[in-house]
Automatic annotation (TrEMBL):
Domain Solute-binding protein family: 259-587
Record keyword DNA damage present: no
Species, as recorded: Halolamina salifodinae
Protein name: Peptide/nickel transport system substrate-binding protein
Record family assignment: Belongs to the bacterial solute-binding protein 5 family.
GO biological process: peptide transport
InterPro entries noted in UniProt: SBP_5, SBP_5_dom
Keyword Transport on entry: yes
Coiled coil location: none
Lineage: Archaea, Methanobacteriati, Methanobacteriota, Stenosarchaea group, Halobacteria
GO molecular function: peptide transmembrane transporter activity
Length: 593
């Protein structure tokens, strides 16, 4: 079946099902199936793709537990662990999946980022741009509306979005883990005060009083990708933005809850519609190769993010960068009017939303302009992909507070503090701690598992585990002399993502029922040893979250069929029957095209 040809019809159906039709009786569904010849019984067979244990401490265990509940409900499900790079390519680039278990990137804690995650216009785009193929016109309209409003009007739009996705379930939020790390108590005195999931956390570390000069922070982790690829635009190589955030400067950063000029010395944002901005760059800022950072680099960056082929042909489709697209699409034009001044014109958006666009990494034009040709393997064009999206970008040339020294692929990466970075100067308007970073060099080594990473710290061969480790390592960390347990509330939930382009999973009532087969608090206790909490959506614990979606004793929208991890099989099967499905010899069957 031609998926593209079916999209308008499917989108209309989903929009209707997103409201009253979600609770329609099974008789209507059966009559519709009769009309379309959809009565032949076929076993429902699904596959969950996820990461192996050595790449993620919890993903595989979560997927297997979910699969066990699905099997009890009569669904034929298998779990396929696969290497992280291949998983991301299949699920985020090729959409070759039924379901996946992964962690959402932290950027989806920003309410406007939900637009690229869920808007139907991004259903065929690569990366974390609606990988579910979700299409709901009510959600589309509210996602557009929240960009152009503020205050209570924006809150109401976002509340409507969250209620609809909680009901129609393009993904099921499984659990929100705590990030567990181990650190040497003699390395830095303020571990508990910093966030190591943020590049600013590394700048905030304090130097021990008896530390010798220079200071090297030895980080051990399990993510090998940063040792082989430092491309901030690469979808399948970016689990987080910590390393690229140290190498590249944005115009502004959020510091202590406030949007603060960073590479920019000042930002003047208008209140008109659409908004505009005058951005002045700091003086005497160089790229790591010695070339000056100019307004032309800034304008080039936004052109590149909008179309990595930089095509001048108006008829060209263009190749936008999947990373940062929710922010770059806010910009209508960025023009260098002087050597250090850039004028921005934004799309129709509230100024508070438009300001998000100024947080992307700024790239050097003299390096990246040569990466705009079509990418090819063995002389064969990949089509719709440019060199900018696939280059490993080693050595990287940024302007950030740290610069590249050397790497051993899959083993080690070394960065050092950039000499005379503007953050170390007087009168920057930045907090004092930014300029007196305790780290002169950052040495990152890679091991095979979280357990090995913890032992490396315990043995004194590393100062901290850079990637989060599994909760099973907590007793070892607690018993070890000179080792400190670090626990942070994570902003990256595990989700069960559904490919709504596929038969059965294109039905929101089916996804709603599947969500009711999952006991989220049980997953947090059973798989993550209690180092997690349950939530309904990615904006939980923010000011944008409606009270009726707060988790109390159970999920307020899709409560579990059962209790304490034990599925009420009869209730689950009855729900599928009410949705128009049948059982044959205990196996769930449904029609197919």
């Amino acid at each position: 079946m031609n998926r593209a040809a079916s999209k308008p019809s499917r989108r209309s159906v989903l929009a209707a099902l997103g409201s009253a039709a979600v609770v329609a009786g099974s008789g209507c569904l059966r009559r519709a199936r009769n009309l379309t010849g959809w009565e032949s019984s076929q076993p429902i067979s699904l596959r969950i793709k996820t990461l192996p244990t050595d790449a993620d401490p919890y993903a595989l265990a979560l997927a297997r537990r979910v699969a066990a509940w699905f099997r009890k409900a009569g669904i034929d499900v298998d779990v396929l662990p696969m290497a992280e790079q291949e998983l991301l390519r299949e699920c985020l680039l090729r959409t070759e999946f039924d379901m996946f278990v992964m962690r959402l990137p932290e950027r989806f804690r920003d309410p406007d980022a939900l637009r690229t995650l869920l808007h139907s216009r991004f259903a065929d785009a690569p990366g974390w741009q609606n990988p579910f193929g979700y299409a709901n016109l009510e959600v589309d309209e509210a996602l557009d509306r929240q960009r152009t409003t503020d205050g209570q009007d924006r809150w109401e739009a976002l509340a409507s979005i969250q209620r609809t996705i909680a009901r129609t379930q393009p993904f099921t939020l499984l659990t929100v883990p705590d990030d567990v790390r181990a650190a040497r108590t003699d390395a830095h005195p303020n571990w508990q005060e910093v966030e190591l999931r943020s590049p600013l956390g590394y700048l905030r570390l304090e130097r021990p009083q008896d530390a010798e000069e220079p200071s090297t922070l030895r980080v051990v982790g399990t993510d090998r990708r940063g040792t082989t690829n430092l491309n901030p635009l690469s979808v399948e190589f970016r689990r987080s933005g910590v390393l690229t955030g140290l190498l590249y400067d944005p115009l502004t950063r959020e510091i202590d809850g406030e949007t603060t000029p960073w590479l920019a010395s000042s930002v003047s944002l208008s209140a008109e519609s659409p908004p505009t901005a005058q951005v002045e760059l700091r003086e005497d800022v160089d790229w790591h190769d010695g070339e000056p950072v100019t307004a032309a680099d800034v304008a080039f960056t936004y052109d590149l993010l909008a179309d990595t082929s930089l095509s001048d042909d108006d008829s060209s489709v263009g190749v936008p960068s999947p990373q940062f697209r929710s922010r770059s699409t806010l910009v209508a034009d960025a023009e260098a009017v002087e050597e250090r001044r850039v004028e921005f014109t934004f799309e129709d958006a509230d100024p508070s939303v438009a300001a998000r666009a100024l947080t992307v990494p700024i790239l050097p034009e003299h390096v990246w302009r040569e990466r705009t040709d079509d990418a090819a393997i063995g002389g064969i064009s990949l089509g719709g992909v440019t060199e900018a999206l696939v280059t490993n970008n080693i050595p990287p040339v940024g302007s950030g507070p740290f610069e590249f020294v050397r790497n051993s692929p899959r083993e080690r990466l070394v960065l050092r503090r950039t000499e005379d970075h503007f953050s170390t100067r007087e009168g920057t308007g930045l907090p004092d701690w930014v300029g007196r970073a305790a780290i002169d060099e950052l040495s990152i080594s890679v091991v095979g598992s979280g357990v090995t990473a913890v032992e490396t710290v315990v043995d004194g061969d590393a100062d901290v585990t850079g990637t989060a480790v599994g909760a099973e390592t907590v007793p070892r960390i607690g018993r070890a002399t000179g080792t400190e347990l670090l626990v942070e509330r994570s902003d990256r939930p595990y989700v069960l993502g559904y490919n709504t382009r596929e038969p059965h999973l294109d039905n929101p009532r089916v996804r709603n029922t599947l969500a009711r087969l999952v006991d989220e608090p049980f997953l947090g206790d059973d798989v993550l040893d209690g180092y997690a909490h349950a939530a309904v959506g990615p904006l939980h614990e923010t000011d944008w979250y409606p009270n009726d979606l707060m988790w109390r004793d159970e999920n307020p929208v899709v409560p579990f069929f059962g209790e304490e991890g034990t599925l009420d099989v009869s209730a689950a099967r009855e729900a599928f029957r009410e949705a128009g499905y049948q059982y044959e010899d205990g196996t769930l069957v449904g029609g197919g095209p």
